[in-house]
Design a protein that fits this description.
The chain is mainly alpha-helical. The chain has 9 helices and no strands.
């Protein structure tokens, strides 16, 4: 665990905005506080999107390089959390695009009708044997998420895994709240379909 210096302790009573202002003014202790506060979350976000530790570590480093290079442009209209998450998400997605991976595609037709309510899925959350297969289930979920294209994966991770609001997700990805809802619904449907097949096969076997 990172220790906090006496100078950093002096900054603890300050609000995040005040610490950001101190960092913008070149206060290295304030910069260190911001790194300590956000490093784990940024790393985990990048890892969930990219699924490789090496890539997540690179994104973490790249994110804070960008943050301190562009801190003077942060105007406070959005929260610092939203701003730094946008930088980290964009860095992760840019790296994902460079991999040129073929993903599962879903229709972007605006007339697309979500039929999730009309389908029958196995409710694995009610499966008492799920705990036994906990690691296996997590692996299946991770593999299913990995097959989502970037526009669906990023929304699902930010909204359902990171627990951000529709508004925060919209701001980070720079898309409308309605698009967040549409993409999230499609991502959830694909994942339910994929996982239902897996649980169905496990029950049958």
């Amino acid at each position: 665990m990172n220790s906090i210096s006496s100078e950093q302790k002096d900054l603890v009573p300050f609000t995040e905005q005040e610490i950001v202002e101190q960092a913008r003014a070149g206060n290295r202790q304030a910069m260190t506080l911001l790194v300590n506060q956000y490093s784990e979350r940024i790393y985990n976000l990048a890892l969930r999107i990219l699924r490789r530790k090496e890539d997540a570590e690179d994104v973490l480093q790249e994110t804070f390089i960008t943050v301190f290079e562009k801190l003077h442009t942060f105007d406070g209209r959005s929260g610092f959390f939203t701003w730094i998450y946008r930088i980290a998400t964009n860095a992760s997605l840019m790296r994902l695009r460079k991999k040129r991976v073929v993903f599962q595609e879903m229709s972007d037709n605006p007339d697309y009708q979500d039929t999730i309510e009309s389908r029958v899925f196995i409710d694995w959350s009610e499966d008492p044997s799920a705990n036994i297969y906990n690691t296996e289930v997590k692996t299946q979920i991770d593999q299913a998420i990995g097959k989502l294209s970037e526009i669906y994966r990023s929304v699902f991770i930010l909204r359902d895994i990171e627990g951000l609001s529709i508004k925060e997700t919209s701001s980070i990805l720079n898309i409308t709240e309605e698009n967040v809802k549409i993409r999230l619904r499609r991502a959830r449907q694909y994942l339910r379909d994929s996982l239902s097949v897996y649980f169905d096969e496990r029950v049958v076997s």
